[in-house]
DUF4246 domain-containing protein
Amino acid sequence: MSSSNDKKLCLDKISRLNTNKAFFGTHTTEPKTRVELRMLKASAFIRSAPGWADQLNDEEKCQEWTTQVKDTFNLADKEVEYVFEELQYYARLKDNGAGGEELGAIDNLWTINAASNCELAEEFKHNAAVLESDFDQTESNRDTLSSGFKALVDPFLNSFSSDNSFLLETPVATLGAALDTTLSRTNPGSPEDWFRAVGDLNSMLSADKSAFDKREVIEPVRACYAVDPDEEYVCWLPTDFHVSDDGSVTIPSYINNLHPVRYAALYQTISKVFAKFVPLLEQVTTDVIHPLSLRAVFTRESCITPGMTDPQDIFELFEDGLPLPEEYQKYLFTVNRTYGNTSRDVLCLDMEALYKAYDKVEVYTEPTPKQFRPSGRPIKPYSMRGLPLQATVDMASITLTPENPIQPEGEWRVVGRADERIFSVGLYFYDVENIANPKLKFRDPVISIP
């Protein structure tokens, strides 16, 4: 029997430049029309071809692509013209990507081929294997092994809670001081009594006993960070990542649920992976600050028209024994769902109903894209070098077998809630085995016609 294995590191990057509530409360994606979604698919289809940017000046190749996208994605001439104008713009952005960054299949998505750095991938797999082995041997995790899903580093575990987590007025300088604050809440007596309550920590904390001091514990103020201050606030704990001027990354803080001593080597590898994400984060940030306009904009004035001039036209077609055009069939369906296969006899009995619904029937016409206009985005992206960034770290391994062929988490996943203030999500697939054509799917928001 064969199995498929997919292991990934998820870095939910949060730029400190944009941690205010106003930014995250108003930054939303406008729904796209169906024709725009087809245009995006056509663009991604062309960009999936090796050397696509160099072939944009090849008239014969462009004609071949034109024929393919018209047939495959049902595009009109104006839509194809827009796609190729946008591709010329994308080619200029791609030329700037010295690190191999590529535009993804949807807006605000950038990718890099991890296979271009096999040495880093092997290092990551080697260090992650230690973590995975420890996970398998932990008794509390054994019940989850049969499902094929392993949450190796789970941001939901030991996350911050406004009702249960402690906040300090001043920073904690030592491990002993941290224990002082925490254990004094639940254990009476002297620090020595606290040690006995949690086990023998003398070998670990002997140098820190003198550092015990009382620090005032304060209650979290939900209004400072929660989207809804009336609800309990629970969020993942981010890790500090410092990006140096040369693009290298260090982790000066603790990754939640990943022991910094036991997995010190993995910390180093994660910092290298994050360094690979920095150019992608720079591109995404620049895209978000300078967004492209919608390609095909819906307006009621231009896209909605009356369905017909007179319901009598339908009756005359039936009288002549002619088939109904599609828009007439939609008209009947709007009047009453039972009219999907309306016969002449039923129609004769309900002409009054047809006339009553006459003013309510509308026909939707897809919008036509205007000429492509760049967003004003600089070709060189904004730099994140020298900045402190924050990210939550999530590592998982998924194994699918004939006995368990479906991913336990489900097909779709939303990373974080609004309270996490997540600006961008990075995925690093560090080990993919026995998967013929691994791909990610993305969902776009939709809206009903008003």
Residues 264-289 form the longest helix (26 residues). Residues 13-28, 197-215, 336-349 have pLDDT under 50 and may be disordered.
